Amino acid sequence: MKNKAGKNKLPFILLPILLIVIFTLITTRASVDQSLIVYCSHDSIFSDEIFKKFTLETGIKVTPRYDTEASKSLGLTEKILREGENSDCDVYWSNEMFSMPVLQEHNLLKAYKNKNWDRIPDKFKEENGFWCGFGARMRVIIFNTEQVQKPETAKANFSESELSKMAIALPLYGTTLTHFAILQKYLGEDKLREIYKSWRQKGLQIVAGNGPSRNLVANGNCQYAWTDTDDYFGAVDNQAPVTMLPARLPDGKTIIIPNTVGILKHSDKIHAARIFVNYLTSAKIELAMARSSSRQIPVGPVDEKLPQEVAELQKYLDQGADLKQTFSERTSLLNWIKEEHQLK
To answer: pTM for this one?
Structure first.
């Protein structure tokens, strides 16, 4: 009788252990299901902190995938296109606008109007929700103040006989590609080709990225260059002798380029992906990006005071051209830039 009673008690002893095992399996599976792979072309020095805070606040793990400094958004965009529906990517965080319409055209994005949709101006988002902008940079001309005494009157005079003291990034990637695309929209392809060939003949220095073009000016090897506000502030923080002016278009408009985010259509982590998109496009994150050393410009309203340097840049938002009108220029632009530089 005693042995029989002991046998009957055994299942009751094991029950709590069994429940713990089941709970552990369920929570572990839930944690795995909620993890996200994010392809990101925003600098890791800035984005890593946002990823960590997101995981801390939501419990959703993020595994970021970056690309090289030179190719960045173009490289990641091409990677997603190659991978197609087999891509590991759940969310794409691009540091510019051009990538998203390309992925949308290939039916690789899933529409989602995030919780912050109404606070983002129309020119910085896709109308159906396939992608949304936040935290922007502005294209600028950076000057070495030891070599250029009056930048406001100099303004990079491209009619000069030689341009060996002027630098730009190869217009095949990132924000310089966007810059050229909008110039092509304004001037036409033939005119821009003519101008670009003329600049090269006059000694224009073409380097690997915005950072290198900024460095040439900061080090005194060039008098001025095209770059972005975040690169400019990097030189300021290093106490380089620099100042800047907005790079304006023929009609006087500025070039404001936001980060953008989109959810990949094939992702099986849609719920977690939406939480991440809500997080990135919030006033809280735009404010954090504005307060970081990159001084990103909030494109939507924020409740707290901005750093003075960023507040001064906000006045240029309303002057910014609508870059969505330039998306159709991308393919022809890439083709002739590759042709011009004899690239495959």
So the answer is: 0.85
Q: What is the DSSP letter of 180?
A: H
Give the total residue count for the chain.
Answer: 344
Which residue in the block uniquely carries the two structure tokens 């990641």?
76
Tally of CA atoms within 13 A in the half-sphere of 7 that contains its CB: 4
- Whether residue 179 has pLDDT greater than 90: yes
**Whole-number Å distance between alpha carbons of 48 and 22:** 34
- Kindly report the number of other CB atoms within 10 A of residue 292's CB atom: 20
For 33, half-sphere exposure in the C-beta direction (CA atoms, 13 angstrom radius) is: 9
**Domains of the chain: residue spans and CATH:** 36-136+255-313 (3.40.190.10), 138-254+334-340 (3.40.190.10)
pLDDT of 32 above 70: no
188 burial via Cβ count (<10 Å: 0-12, 13-18, 19+): exposed
321-335: average pLDDT: 88
